[in-house]
Structure formats: C-alpha cells, structure tokens
Design brief:
By secondary structure, the chain is of the alpha/beta class. Helix content is 32%, strand content 15%. Strands 1, 2, 3, 4, 5, 6, 7 and 8 form an 8-stranded mixed β-sheet that branches.
Amino acid sequence: MTQNGFRAEEIDTSRPHPARIYDYLLGGKDNYEVDREAGDQLIDVAPEARIGVQSNRLFLQRAVRHVVGAGVRQILDIGTGLPTSPNVHEVAQEVAPDVRIAYVDNDPIVNTHASTLMSGAGTTSIVLADLRDPQAILDHPDVHRVIDFDQPVALLLVAILHFLTDAEQPAQVVATLRDALPAGSYLVLSHATSDFNDRSDAQGAYRTATASMNLRTRAEVEHLFEGFELVEPGLVQVPFWRPDSKPPRSAGEIGIYGGVAHKNS
C-alpha cells in the first residue's frame, strides 16, 4: 500500500493511459513504452496530434488566466494529467496568489507525481478519483478542503470528456458537476473532433488504452455547455480561442474544440 492509499499493483503499466500518452506528446518523460507506442501510432494517422496537444495546453493557460482575471479564486481541474510546467496553479497564482486548486485524476501515477510536486502547498489538493463518478468527486473531503461550493468555481474539463463513451453519458456527468456550482462559476472545456479531418483511425491508438477515444462533432461538444453561456469567441478550435500569439501554420487542421462558459444562475 502506498501513502496515497492504493496498492502498487493497481498501477497498470501494461496498457497505455491517456494522461501518459498526452505527457509523451508534450515532450514529457513520465510515460512508458506502451504510451510512447500509442503516441507514435496516433501521430502516424494524425500528424497534427503533437501540435494539437501543445495548442490545447496553451488554450488551457489562456483560459485559466481569463477566469482568474474575471475574479474566480477556486479551480476544480478534473483529468489534470501529469504535471507539466507551468501547471494550472502556477498560471493561476501568477494572476492572483490566493487562488486555490483541487486537481483530480484517475491515474495513480499522476496522483503520485502531483502529490510529490505540490506537497506542502496548502492552496492545492490532489485527489485520486474518476470523472465517471462525478458525485464522488464533489463529495471528496480533499476537494472540500480547498473548494467552497458556495463561492464561484472554475471547472476545468480539458481534453478529458472525449475519453468517455456515449454510454458513460458525458453530458450527464457535466450536468452533475454544473449543478453543484454557484452562479458566477465558469466551465473550461476542450474536446477532440473529426470535423476538420477524418480521424477515425486515430481512435485506434487508444484501442488497448485504459480509456477509448470518442470523437464528437461541434454540435455534440456545444451540447456539453448546456446551462452555461459561452463567452466570446464561443466554441472554436483551440488555437483560435483568444490567441496571444500567432497560431501555428497548421492550426486549421487541429481537431480540438475549446471554449469557456459562464454560469449565470
């Protein structure tokens, strides 16, 4: 049993994990051969994948700056992935040092790395939990240690919902989380799509992974924002959400939508 409450044998390194594939595509080192093989397979069928995840990461940073600049001082980041500098708390606390962040992921390896990186940080919490059970996340004591659900919260669901199948009801998952948030909260969401290129083959890279890749159309992704009001420029490809530098040359081919939305009531 580890200090985080799970057994070593629960860490499955025999199958690719989305967080570790993502880490590999970002140039990280916290991944295994199976993750690198899956990442290379993804790049073979979707050459823009690496620049896509980099653009998604930059979207996340811009979105965090926006919501913190709008006055939010609490962030619930579900599907946080392996620590990648700058991390969400680093971006947020550059804008406002009093921001509190609860990180949630279902990979014990993510939990271990994040806990080591942020040990002793009283404004952050690291939670091992699964998006498929949103109520368990909302009820988790380590979430409540830093998040006050009576005050506005920025909910981050960045590049995570496409790992839920339709049978796992991603819209209902978001609705459960949305209903726990007070007025003044925000949703930051990004999601993979085949709208710009047929990337059905890309799903094969996740065939043996711990979660499948489920591409959705713009209309399907926009439906996930129900109950929120999208802020300008709405739901767009991630390089084009309020860019602070020139988008990459291949930006038009990047199959990831991103948006930020406000909860008014």
